[in-house]
Amino acid sequence: MPAKRTLAEELASRQREISVAEFFERNRQILGFDNPQRALLTTVKEAVDNSLDACEEAGILPDVLVEISRLGEDRLKVAVEDNGPGILRREIPNVFGRLLYGSRFHSNRQARGQQGIGISAAVLYAGLTTATPAHIISKVRESPTANVLDLVLDTSRNLPRIVAEDVMLWGDRTSGVRIELTIRGRYQRGRQSPYEYLRGTAIVNPHSRLVLVEPDGTRTTWDRATPELPKVPQEIPPHPHGLELGELMQRLRSSRKPTLGEFLTSDLSGVTRRALADILARAGFTGKEDPRGLHGEAVEKLLEALRATPMAPPSADCLSPIGPLLIKRGLKNVLGPIKPEFYAPPVSRPPKVHSGCPFLVEVGLVYGGELPPDQPVQLLRFANRVPLLFQQGACAITNTVAHMDWRRYGLEQKSSALPVGPVLILVHVASTKIPFTSEAKEAIAEQEDLTREIELALQAAARNLKLHLSRRTRRAMAQEKFAIIRRILPRLAEKTSGLVGKPVPDLDRVITRIMDVVTVEIQGGGKDPSSPSREARIEITNYTARTRHLELFLEVPLEATGPGFRADPPAASVQPEMGRVSWDLLKLSPSERKVFQITWASGAELDPEDVDVFVAGVDEAHLLGADPLPGDWDVRLPAALVEAAEKGEDSAGPLPNPGEEDEEVDYDATERKESVSQNED
Amino acid sequence: MPAKRTLAEELASRQREISVAEFFERNRQILGFDNPQRALLTTVKEAVDNSLDACEEAGILPDVLVEISRLGEDRLKVAVEDNGPGILRREIPNVFGRLLYGSRFHSNRQARGQQGIGISAAVLYAGLTTATPAHIISKVRESPTANVLDLVLDTSRNLPRIVAEDVMLWGDRTSGVRIELTIRGRYQRGRQSPYEYLRGTAIVNPHSRLVLVEPDGTRTTWDRATPELPKVPQEIPPHPHGLELGELMQRLRSSRKPTLGEFLTSDLSGVTRRALADILARAGFTGKEDPRGLHGEAVEKLLEALRATPMAPPSADCLSPIGPLLIKRGLKNVLGPIKPEFYAPPVSRPPKVHSGCPFLVEVGLVYGGELPPDQPVQLLRFANRVPLLFQQGACAITNTVAHMDWRRYGLEQKSSALPVGPVLILVHVASTKIPFTSEAKEAIAEQEDLTREIELALQAAARNLKLHLSRRTRRAMAQEKFAIIRRILPRLAEKTSGLVGKPVPDLDRVITRIMDVVTVEIQGGGKDPSSPSREARIEITNYTARTRHLELFLEVPLEATGPGFRADPPAASVQPEMGRVSWDLLKLSPSERKVFQITWASGAELDPEDVDVFVAGVDEAHLLGADPLPGDWDVRLPAALVEAAEKGEDSAGPLPNPGEEDEEVDYDATERKESVSQNED
After folding, report:
1. Which of A118, A376, A419, B633 lies in disulfide reach of A411, CB 3.0 to 4.6 Å?
2. Coil, helix or strand for A539?
3. Is the ipTM of this complex over 0.90?
4. From residue B77, how far is each of A489, B71, B98 by CA, in Å?
5. B15·A141 Cβ contact <8 A
6. What is the chain A residue with the closest CA to B141?
7. How many CB atoms lie within 10 A of CB A253?
8. What pLDDT digit, counting tens, does each position of A547-584 carry?
């Protein structure tokens, strides 16, 4: 320290600017590059997310290839190639070699990438750990050749530096991008692996075709499950609810609209003509004011008026939810082998708004099968269709699940821990701006509005779980009763009839009397690969004392309803894109039985466990072997069924305990009663 | 979209640069400003951390005032004032109004602030939520007046904008800074409050004086517990271990040293003359090469040589550990009211290195008292002397605690959850670069080297816990035995003596025979506030069959050893700064008892539970009512004691079961044996 320098000057002389690239170089754990395993995943994730975003923006069904090869101890080459629109030569260096540069940051709509950091961070990391440049190939449709660039990120200036450049013919590819990075990384399967990430991506992006080539040469393909691109989210202005004073001031100051009225209706969303009048009246403005001329108290008054005025909810156009149908489909695709006994109808909440940004929450819940019963529930977290694999403990999704009281819904739980049980929960948050806890985008921060929505969605799913569990208990009891009756009654009847010298009575009627249920039984299939069964029989029997008007619905795997699918009697409706089959209204007298048969599409192998059977027209207390039609079918039931339900015809009092009657059955009385019941009908 | 524009051009036109301030404005949860409660804490924390850093760098004992006042619903004014060196006028705008600008980012030593983001982020947040500028007063010693500036952060350019400026006389303050911010925030006490943050700061910064004024006017002062400033961490060059290839290349390229030899010894730390020769020989260099002239394979060879060469560990000069003594003191200060039964000797690990950055881990562990026995352990996390209050679930400290098997150490634990028990664990990580998971600096990222050190430190503390728990069990058994013997023997002796017509024998000798322990009893104190006791008696009795050479040590509260403190017999050593008292070697024959008395310093009220008693010269199996001297005392024991311990004189075989003898005591035989023992001595 020079003798004459004062302390304050000495301290001041140390102050200096920090390049954003230097900052992230020194804090690479913030970007998700803190250990070789996580660094590999982050690299793959940033590249694939970019590819999917680019394809969808350009209206192209994504076809993404990920190749990982080992070059040495902890040294991997990662290549990601897509069929997207490609990147113009002039933008390539900045897109890949500059932090905080991108196309999606300033747009207010759902996208995987939002920060303009991800892929450049991977390039930075490659340079830092292996001193190799990124190798990029890009072709746009209009150019006959592809550009080839080798570039590095210069951290002290946060700018790209091109090391080598060329052009080439790129096979028959119309357009696309390929990036190759050599990084310090470690490949392993299992949790938090590129395999898991791509599998999760496939669940929530069923329109994508994803291929992974692992270092040992194993090639896995996740095929497209639907040829439909999700609708492209539209950019919308921010919604006034949740805007802060400073934000509103900035927006007013930077507005290009001539009047306050136009600012409110064009620079914000949700402000209808009626709301506008309301706002202006409340704040005491005419609407003709110059938005750039408002300051201090005037803006505070405006903000108060905005907060007080009821507003249209934000448009969901800027969001791209997965939807209940595809959530269920995605879960079934992945969970098939573990045969869960129950898929709760997925929940897709309506959009809400936080700090002017619309968002929505979707939840899927699966119970039973081979899910471990004594472990914490499995949680699949997704943000804007991207699986989140790290930082589970830091995530608002995890915390919201843990802080709900799951004991109310039939699961074990220690205070504030994940509940325990054979359950898998999928939570998807879609937003124009996901509040990630860090640039690594692995955990969502706690925000009251958001956690409230997650909680509501979870509660809806949990209520269905509870319903299922109590239904399961009730059904188990009914099935036990049914089994006992069917085993004991014939022997009892035979013996008694012999003793009194009378013919054996019609047992179906007696069963009807005791059981008071409609039963559904499904048979068929078979696991023998040499002669795969392709037919299933569904038997429906009315063991109640009334004639029933019922409808039968099946949900089968998509491939089952392809060419070759047959239903006998012919189904009234087959929706192949949803795997749904239904028949016309069906009339069943007491003790009457009807049989339905389906034949699988050619090539598909039938497994009766893949068939979900639903029955409408009888409440679930009187239904055995099938479920009531869930809400997500959204079927308009015939008036007769609705009427029956409204009349509450099933709510007859409890039957006498059959166990008490076993010893002393009065067949005559039984028959008499039955006749009375029939006459009533 | 203009008709002639291609898709690729359209997409390219959307690409643009993102200002770092815009980025953080949109992602303010990353900086710790995502809800009003957390935003308040982050604001206080950033300001206080800066104040403490500045004071310590300038060699000033910190005196920091935090005032929080309520201006309206969710609108708070936060003022933080320090007695630091102040900031020169020309640096004020950049320090407070520009992200990624600071003095500590490029220096390689421990500091609270490292990123050059914190306080400017608070200014950004204030502007965003309340549209008010930051109000800053700063005075350096050399200037008679203080500068007063009102400034805001212009997010689109990430530059400060001065709104108003003035100078003023600032009372009798020599130097210092005061910042006032108006923010959207919510004040509450409890977990994650400014109160908790300052309390935690006081624990690990006992040299600071902190004052908090809450919105309701409550004023809390945490006084300095020591007048000694921690040693100022020195800046050192990075250590070669853990350097990546790309990092090494950059350092070579930007080196100002003329030769490779000088680069290695001056631009890196830990490279001794001997290591240098080794490195050069391994890599095949002379040391005369120009560091900027090395490329490709040459650098790879150099890196291999650096990795293969044994190197001096990094100097700890760049770190400022709290140290075992102050950890214990800090914990005792805070936990006093809950009277823990055991403070494990704090663990302070030697420095290690990760990616060229030295770091070290310290752990304190407390057991029992009023800590809840059926709750997860309480975890106090600290990074560079700063309490971490949020994101516990995301932190490597938490995960390391949860993944250790605590059942081995006597605590309950579900797999991979925090253990359950009346335990509080303090973990402090000190590093030249803490790998935080985000800019909010609330959780530490998982890094193998770091978690390994945390684990080792926790294991050391846990072993002491286990020792304590088994000692406690053993002692409880011994005490029970002692109590029974003291109750039964006199009655037995009286009755038997009466029967045989002999006098009652000396029971101490019999007790000695049966117990074979040295007992320590402490009496005194009392909780009556009207007549506070100021004296304590320590009675030490040798109920073993040998003459003992012992030393007695006390640890008492610091204030107890102030003026007025007396020890009778006079203590051989009193260390008031550590609250430690010890006496000279003490000789106790079998059955002999000695009494020591201490008198508290005037004004201090004695509580015997505040006195820790340690005895050297007898192993813990033969000691009742005191603990063996713990390792952190670092006392050189007299040769006689060491010798005795080495000869293992206490390891006599087990005594006959006293229970079997109770019915049939042969007093003569007992006395004979006692005499033999005495002669042996």
Report:
1. A419
2. strand
3. no
4. 81, 7, 21
5. no
6. A8
7. 13
8. 898 989 988 877 777 788 888 888 888 887 778 888 88
